[in-house]
Amino acid sequence: MGRLVIISNRAPSVDGSGDSGGLVVALKDALAKDGGLWIGGAPKQTDAPSPSLIFHHRQDFDIGLFELEPKLYRDYYLGYSNSVLWPALHGRVDLIDVQPCYAAAYREVAGRLARLIAETVRDDDLIWVHDYQLIPLAHELKALGVKSRIGFFLHIPLPDLQTFKAIPDWRDLARWLADYDLIGFQTRRDLGHMINIFRHTLRGELRSNGNMGIAGREVALGCFPISINVDGFRRLAAEGAVNTPAPSLPRLIGVDRLDYSKGLPQRLVGYQKFLESHAAFHGKVSLLQIAPPTRDDVDAYKAIRTELEHLAGHINGRFGTVDWTPVQYIHRALPRDELAVLFRLSRVGLVTPLFDGMNLVAKEYVAAQDAADPGVLVLSQFAGAAEEMPEALIVNPHDPQDIAQAISTALEMPLGERIERHDALYSHLQDHDVDHWCAAFLKRLVSVERLDVDGVARFPGLEPWAQVG
Ligand SMILES: O=P(O)(O)OC[C@H]1O[C@@H](O)[C@H](O)[C@@H](O)[C@@H]1O
């Protein structure tokens, strides 16, 4: 039986430190099952990259690191990945920065990485590629004769066809995506966009089994909403809260990387509107916004930071008193256990991105609550999480009045209604935690029929994966 091989731009740490959140938690168990391998970028760049993967053996799985030169990395990561694809796929075509060296670096990295991977994978390995930084990988691997099944999961949104076409290389991207055996999306929204893009670009035909026929082969598509370790996060919050005093005022909380897709200025403007129209709450509520820095070297990120800091200062200057600071703003990351407790002790969770693949903060906020006295989640209609969390207060993040209204509804919501909404949200999460996500994707990847090229279904005997979870 083959191994599970995960490939992502960032690799987990080689010593297991910092494993507590995100993708590593999600994939660790599946990887540990049969001696899995995780291939990802080395944390540092070098002028003399190693000509092969650098392997590290961890107790639970192996890690293979690839190295890149600083300029190539910049053009591939800050450039094409985060100055072209990230804004475009988040619908911010106005922020796309097209430079010829970016696209070339993006392809170069995928090509180089494919050569390193081809040296180590076997036909019966199951390859799972993650996210927008590595879209051309299946194409490159197949060109090198790699016969493993290859799945891809897009963690961020896929926009509609017109927006997608704003990317200069949109045809290539569509073709590269069509080289995967299975493509997974966070939402039905994104899945629908992919079907439309394949139809328009590659004359793809939707089959009755949900796959698409493209140029003589089938590409399986599916919706697999990512999640968190629900029980673990609930325990972290409950245990940590035991010795933490409750805040003196009911608190609203927001936790987001300082990214323009997160709708942070719009959120503050909504809060400002709320304060304008609810004088009774002056001095009686506060907003804690934690916004750790990210991709600081990209201009669009510098601009959003300036805008947010200006707004926070403006609101505090306008409404604050000697005893009351309406907005507390923290521009650094806090440890996960501290965040869990802050979520539990906050009356309202504000998750109002302008466009988001999923948004796990929404799920963490719900998991962290005390079921007997839960807080209320205010959630953007454009977060992928909104498809699964209709019992949140759903808002339009572009409409400050809507945000203001939701804040006041949340603060005034009776206990019975808070419990009812939380119960519904929490029980859905319990049935759809991160293990469920991982198992569902792998089960589907294993079951993909590969009748391509020579008309023969390849790679039988991978059934054990279908039992994950
Ligand atoms: O650029 P960074 O810091 O590696 O972050 C990338 C990640 O950012 C996260 O916000 C996205 O949800 C992931 O999909 C993405 O891969």
What does this structure look like?
The chain has 469 residues and is an alpha/beta fold. It has 2 domains: 4-227 and 434-448, 3-Layer(aba) Sandwich (Rossmann fold), CATH 3.40.50; 230-431, Glycogen Phosphorylase B (Rossmann fold, 3-Layer(aba) Sandwich). The protein has 15 helices and 16 strands. It has helices spanning 22-33, 70-89, 100-118, 137-143, 161-164, 170-177, 188-202, 230-241, 264-277, 299-319, 336-344, 360-368, 400-412, 415-431, 434-447, and strands spanning 4-10, 37-41, 54-57, 62-66, 126-130, 149-153, 182-185, 205-206, 212-214, 217-223, 251-255, 286-290, 327-330, 348-351, 376-380, 393-395. The strands form 2 sheets. The protein has a 10-stranded mixed β-sheet, with helices on both faces. α8 packs across α12 (360-368) and α11 crosses α12. The longest helix is centred in the middle third of the chain and has 21 residues, at 299-319. It starts with a strand and ends in a 22-residue tail after the last helix. The relative contact order is 0.11. The model is unreliable at 453-469 (pLDDT under 50). It binds 6-O-phosphono-beta-D-glucopyranose. Belongs to the glycosyltransferase 20 family. This is Trehalose-6-phosphate synthase.
Sum this structure up briefly.
The chain is α/β, with parallel strands linked by helices. The chain is built from 15 helices and 16 strands.
Characteristic key phrases:
6-stranded parallel beta sheet; 15 helices; Rossmann fold; binds 6-O-phosphono-beta-D-glucopyranose; 2 domains; 10-stranded mixed beta sheet
